[in-house]
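Dear support,

I submitted the protein below through the web form. The confirmation email said the job was done, but the results page showed an empty box. After a refresh the structure appeared. I'm attaching both so you can tell me whether what I see now is the final result or a partial one.
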Amino acid sequence: MRVMEEPKIKVGILEGVCAVNGRFNGPFCLHDGSFLDGNFCARTVSGHVVLIDATGREVVRQKEIRCTPLNHSIFTLFDVTIGVHFHWEKKQEQTFQGFLSLIPDENKTLLVINEIFLEDYLSSVISSEMSGEAPLSFLKAHAITSRSWLMAMLNRSRKSGDPDEAFPVPPRQEGEFIRWYGRIDHRLFDVCADDHCQRYQGVSRLISTNAQDAVDATRGVFLVYNGDICDTRYHKACGGLTDNFENTWEDTPVPYLTSVSDSTVLHHAVRTETDAERWILSSPDAYCNTADANILRQVLPSFDQETTDFFRWRVVYKREELENIIRKKSGMDIGNILNLTPLERGPSGRICLLKIEGSEKTITVGRELEIRRWLSLSHLYSSAFIVSVEREPSGLPILFILNGAGWGHGVGLCQIGAAVMATKGYSEEEILKHYFRGAEIKKLY
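What the results page shows now:
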């Protein structure tokens, strides 16, 4: 594999907004050679971007505005939404280094892009995804994982000419709705700044030197398999077993993205509904099975520490509540929900195919992410759950109780599991080889 140069990447910070407010913390140069410092506002007008300074004066009106930092100036954006459509959604003030581009999109709203070198981007990603106070070997493993995923994704997009979107799978029978998701709608930038790609919250997340040290120590280091950079997926908590790539995305198996036990103990794959019930209602030995508040404080960002039931969780719906959610998410009215029946599961217990039986219509939904979306106003923690039902004497359900395991899709590196491995003294190489079987570590620039 040939050595390459460090790339610059375009990160979509905000999209679909009518206006953005922020502050230039130092001088930024505009296209005409003028400079702008201090507070600003940008909005779209008739297909152009209008940039307004702190006095309310229109500074420039262009099809696209690119602001170049001088003397390492940085910029701040107010009210940036993080965790879009997830249960931790909120707004933050965020500060960034690099270039700022403002572009009108096809919906006549504003697209805000930050152009930055890959290694600078990663320093923020590592602190944004997990706490910068986490053990150094974990942060190094995460830096290599995040760097590899990003380059594999960019290489795939460049080969195909288009970014990934939502991919429906041809139905095998009437009433079957199966789709998987790649990067959605990222046509004008390389990667978004939220959980749909990788969390990126600018220099505002550089809260310790650990993250920077981890990126610097692994600069240009990637996981490779058969000469290609690995598509290194990761998630928050596997629940004790990771899953196979093909159960969440394309049907083609990926050799280094297969199910592993998140433990020194060998856990057997979930194969039946009896296995699923036994597994999900138990508390098996696993790296990510930790309630140690000190460890979680070290590895999780503050807003993720609000989610304490990530290893095993429980959601209870009234029948009418779940019917409304499914109607809203699917666009279909299936009448009264009578049963939720898992038809296919991956080795981690995550459901790949779920039958939803209604009084008016029966539908089947997959894969993992689509199931999580259909059964929650945001997203379920994962699709690894079992269903129990409380019914009226007539048999009509009153309550649907979902007992679940894990947080995220379950493929590749388990972030909490990897962090706990690091606290036990495992090196970054040992952590990566545990989750990505058969992959090699190589420095490419």
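Response: this is the final, complete result; the empty box was a page-load delay. The longest helix spans residues 136-160.
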